[in-house]
């Protein structure tokens, strides 16, 4: 039991001094408004690069170098989008590749990790805790240090320049398994016992009871996985050389104005940027409440 | 078959598909990252070279330069990101309206959804020394243009600035949730003792948030240690190596100079350094707070 602390003399509430109080209130009000302004300023600053990207993508080549820079849209043109999409490179195919890989990794990855998370949370088997500990500990390692080993491994397996090499490594996510396990630990066992008495098999227990109840975590992870896979750059850069198989992130590096910028290339580079930014932003708006919840499950329950 | 045996069998069935992929694509590469530092590759065939690569790396000026750069980036970014995210999050929790809070959380998170490739290219434009926006704004108030990415003194801090502006979302969301999850009795008690506003934040909120701060600091640090995309698009490690990072060096040795063994040794250094920093952070936080 905690000992009840004795209240020091100076902390005993005194009759309120009205003068001091109104001062304090005024000060707090001003302080609150200043910090509010700073907050809004910061929000504006963090959105600005995106605004600037969209705005510039609708400008003509020379307009992008105008001084003073136009902060609003005058005479919008789709010219740079036309140039991106009609370039000699298969830009639409790159977008389709990204979409295919991201959707596949999301769906298959969720199934795999939900199965593993279920086993770690609700099954007893030998080695369970050691395996889980091993999975967890890899979360603390920088993925970049696995880049070259994974590169050589997939090279020796002859997987380079295939869709497999973009899909398979993304499926086994320690983070997803951890999150799903944490979530499934909280499910009441009575539900499972009852279903078992009613004659449900093991697969049905997982598919019809565990999974539906884990929906919030799955939705959060699904959005994360989609966004992370869509945005992944280094791995496909290393293992994909075939123009037709490139995801958009890697493909755009070949477009005009991406790696090095010539004088009139900014609108084209920005249009490419917009094209690859749109899908994750849409996904974000559709699933934002899950996003926010998912991030906090991992951090607060861990 | 008895119940426990069946239970065990189904446990293995559910875990195996994940485990196979985990072994092949996570665990084996992790172990390999240690072994590969002692190998050199000739035409897809590994040759054991012992400590040669490591010896090489340790005697390479560029390696030490990238260690310094990486650490100073990580130091600046982690500290500033945690502090800023915490400040923003605490201000957000002062709103009584839940919808308002969520709206602000989303607003701050959105920029981190956009791919780093797109973000990097916009920033190259914003940092441009002739018609970039920052230099234009400086010229309005009468300051000479700065060659942000072309000057060894400003290049790395420019990358820190860019990543701070887009990369706070996750921290903010975690901190907001953590503050809202604190027991309100503590705040009531503090109010009775006369702590309000700043005092409350400094003496009550922040100490109670230490576990979340540690979590955000460690995850931010791990991501920052792998700084690659902005270097790849904005500076290519230059000028004069001032933005060379361990991740970029690893990549360049492996895929541009095709020295896989050497690159593996740099990658191993990245791994060990990250682990060491994580331990330091854990220790430091433990010494700061007495639970």
Per CATH, the superfamily of chain A is MetI-like
Count of DSSP-assigned helices of chain A? 13
Helix-strand sequence of chain A? HHHHHHHHHHHHH
Largest sheet of chain B: 2 strands, antiparallel
What this model shows, in words?
The complex is a heterodimer of chains A (302) and B (291). With 302 residues, chain A is an all-alpha fold. Chain A is 68% helix and 0% strand. Chain A contains 13 helices and no strands. The mean pLDDT of chain A is 84. Chain B folds into 2 domains: 1-50, no CATH class; 60-288, MetI-like fold (Orthogonal Bundle). In chain B, a hairpin with a 2-residue loop joins strand 1 and strand 2. The longest helix of chain B has 33 residues, at 3-35. The radius of gyration of chain B is 24 Å and the shape is globular. The chains are: A mainly alpha (302), B mainly alpha (291). At the A-B interface, helix 1, helix 3, helix 4, helix 5 and helix 6 of A face helix 1, helix 3, helix 4, helix 5 and helix 6 of B.
